Amino acid sequence: MLCIGDAHFNALPFLIEAVYLSHSSSLALSHFQQATFSYGQACYVEAIQHYLAGLKLGAAQHHYIYADLAKAYEMVGQWDKALACLDIALRLCPDSPTALRRKARILDEKACYDALICLEHFCESPSEEFLAQLEQDPITHPKQVVNSEFFNLTCYSKMQPQTVWNIYQLVHQTRSELGEMLGCYPMAPVPISITNTNGIAASQRTLPKWASGYYDGSIHLAYCAAGEPVLNILYALLRHEWVHLLVHYLAGGHCPMWLNEGLAQSIARPMFQSERLQLEHAVKKKSLLSFAALSEPFSELPVKSRKLAYIQSTAIVDFLIQEFGFPKIRELLHELSDGSPTENAIEQVFEQTSSEIPLAGAF
C-alpha cells in the first residue's frame, strides 16, 4: 500500500490565529474551518474551494491561510498554484518558516515527479483501435473499461479518451520496465482500477484516507482532483503497486514489510529531500524503527511512525540496490519464497546480517 505522505494537518495554529479575524469575517472563518476539516478528511478539492471562498470574504492579509491553501494544492499535484500561493504568503511575511519550508518541499517534489516521465511523449492521439475497444458502461457512466493482453483497466471517474490512452500506455511501460528489473511478468491479465475520490466521503472510500494505492490481487489507484489526474503522480502510484504485484509472485507472500514497501517506493520515485532530512533527523535522535517493527504491516504502526517506516524502508532498499544490484534483490525474494526466515535469507544472499545493513542508506 502506498502512503500519500503526511496528510495529517494540525489545525490548532490556524485556529489560534483565526480567532483574531474581525467579526465581519465570521463567514470567512467558517470557510477556513471547513477547509481544515476537509483537508483532514483528504477531501483536498473541497478544502481548496473553501479556502478560496473564505479569501474572497476576507483575511487576505493573513499569510498562513495562503500557506495552508498551498498545502492543499500540493496534495492534488497542482504545483504551480501551490507555489503561487506561497509567493503571496512570503510577500506578506517574508520570514515565515512554514511558507519557506513548504516552498522548498514543493519545488523538490515537483522536480522529482517531472523527472519521471516526459509529457511530450504523451501527445499522440489515441489509435482508432484503442477508441474502438474503449468501453463506456451506459449504466454506471462515467465508468470506462479497456482490456489488453496483459491487463484490464477500469476508470471509475470521468476522463478524456486521451487521458485513458496515456494511462494505458503507462501501464504497458510499467509492465515492461519493472518486469525487466525484477525478472517477472504476470501470467494472467492484471485488473487495475482508478478512482477519483473527489466528492466521495471518507467513510465510503475503499482505501484509508492516508493511502492512494493498494494491491490485493488487483491494483487499486486513487487520486483527488477537480478534473483529470496528474499523470506523473498516477505513474508513480502505478509503479509502486505493480512492484507489490511482482513481489507477491516472487516471494509467495513471505516478504517482510520493509522489503515490500521499500522496494515499491524505491522503484516508484526518487526520495524527496524532505524525506532525507527526516531520515537524518531520526538517525541523529536514534529514533529509527527496529527491523521487527518494520516487518509488520505499517498500518498497525502509530501514525507518527508510519511515514518514517516508509522512508526508512526505502533507504534500506536503496542501499541494497546500490550495493548489490537487482539480481541480488531477485535472489533474496526467491530465498524468501522457499520459506527461509528473513535473517537467514539476508545472510545467504548478502553475506551479512541485517544488523550490518545501514538503515539510512548512504547516510
List keywords for this structure.
about 375 residues; alpha/beta; Glutaredoxin; disordered N terminus
Helix/strand/pairing category: alpha/beta
Q: Beta fraction of the residues?
A: 5-15%
Helix tally equals 15
Which architecture of the largest domain does the CATH hierarchy give at level 2?
3-Layer(aba) Sandwich
- Characterize the overall form: globular
Mean pLDDT: 87
Question: How many strand units?
Answer: 7
Total domains: 3
CATH class of the largest domain: Alpha Beta
CATH topology of the largest domain: Glutaredoxin
Main sheet characteristics: 7 strands, mixed
Radius of gyration: 22 Å
Helix and strand run: EHHHHHHHEEEHEEEHHHHHHH
The residue ranges in which pLDDT falls below 50 over 5 or more consecutive positions are: 3-21
- Give the fraction of residues assigned to helices: 55-70%
- Strands of the widest sheet, in order across it, are 1-6-7-5-4-3-2
End-to-end CA span: 26 Å
Task: Describe the structure concisely for a colleague.
This protein has 363 residues and is of the alpha/beta class. The chain has helices spanning 12-18, 26-40, 44-57, 63-75, 79-92, 97-114, 128-133, 161-182, 231-251, 257-268, 273-284, 291-294, 303-324, 326-337, 342-350; strands spanning 2-3, 135-136, 144-147, 151-155, 190-196, 211-215, 219-223.
